[in-house]
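G.,

No rush on this.
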Amino acid sequence: MLRLSVEVQNQDIIVRNPETGYSVTYRRMPDSPMLIALDPLRDDPDTNQAKFLAEAWRAAYTKAKMLGWL
């Protein structure tokens, strides 16, 4: 499992991996129980980026549930 930092800023959840420098922002959509990823890594990720994105999604989803967003 990756070491990730999770930070909430307004309607965003920012997940970072300090070891690799990877970062992805998930935005809470108004009037909808969903998160949208705002990140260029999603276009064509390599294997390490894909692993990061999978772990980051789990971390963001968990945080959003804790905040009552989902």
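When you get to it, here's the other one too:
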Amino acid sequence: MPDINSNLNDQVWGLKINKCEIMGIEFKNAVSQLDYYEDIFSNFVSGSLMLSASSAFQDELKWSGNEFINLELDKPLRPEAESIQPLKLKLRIFDIKARKLGNDGNENYYITFCSPPLSLSEQTKISKSYKRKRIDEIIKNIANEYLNIDVNIKPTLGERDIVIPKLKPFEAINWLCTQAIAADLPNSLESGAEYLFWANRDGYYCWSVMHIYNSLPAMIYRNPLSALISGENVGGEGRGSTRGYWYGTKNFEQNGEKWDPYEHIVSFEVMNTYDTVESSQRGMYGNSLLSIDYIRRKHTIETFNYNKYWNYLNGNITKFKDVTYNNIKPFDGPAEQEIDKSIESAIKIYSSTTTQKDSEYLQLVGIDPPSNYPETFVPYRFAQLGLVSHQRLKIAIPGDPFIAVGYVVKVTFPKSNKQIREIGEKEDKTLSGWYLVAAVRHSLNQENQFLTYLELVKEAKHKTTM
């Protein structure tokens, strides 16, 4: 293992602002506070800067609301880490506020910014029909034509005739995501419809949550500087092996390896866990769909049952129990009788063409598949997106501009019981486990403290193969 030099503390806790350029003027030395946000349930990134300067740049720029900021954030790195890419963003400034004179004679003001496509989306409405197109093709077209962005999107099932009814581009994309079923997962119709469209430091993504789970070797995150210090190769899938983030366990060894300063949890908050009454009321364990064929005047009732879905999912779609970093069962689900009673706690109504599969017209025009499959995407999505956030944590870690939403991380919390005999008994098995990074906030305060806050979500309780 390479020697850790005396500047490790600055490397772990510091932030290096390589660039903060606004309309050709460099402001990096004027930055006194920074907040940057990503959220897997948001279509754009956002944030704010507090600048403190005495050069009257604001008069020279003549702020009009059309300015852009080029921001580049990095860590104070050793020479060996030059290959690690910093956080590079081009963002749209949309507001300047709290402009006032400070005690030191400098003028302070806040700049708020967002992804440029948000401004385009707010100014545009789409009224357009798409004939015989897959949903991923439609989303790509909207992203390219109306938002000037490329999107990393997973293929969706089936061609559709769809009319966008005068919606903003982001509204249209989010609406299409509710109907998107993955085409490249085994038994696609039974995998659910949890497509999300989000932005992070690497670009724009439109994946289902199941795609993330099915790509875990590539989605498991480890701070590249941590891998560098341990002597591991930071390239390839998974950024090297990771012991994950640890809270209050500096002297805890696992497999002969000690706590890593880059993977230390500074503080944590349990945001919510297991409100089974509310979950039953919302239909997360069981719900029903009344699908209506208005043409043939027929209807069907489809139900979502969590226990039956899990038993089918495990091994048919994702082999949870065959990989060490997945949970054998997400949580101790309610009894079958409880689910049966909660099926009607949430009832959705949706138009369907499923009963028209034998229609001569549909066969004549060659629509394949003929159904829009609401029996799958409505009840499954409704339950799955609630279940994804069944347990939420917020943790603070040493500032890390390399992490992004969509990654998966492992966290370990110590057991509060002092009478511990074996190493394995040191872990709190309720909170510890693998989590999806759902939100990221980078924060540099006026005391020059750089922290990263992660909102982590998981469906899992404690039954793991670890």
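Residues 374-388 form the longest helix (15 residues). The mean pLDDT is 79.

Enjoy the weekend,
O.
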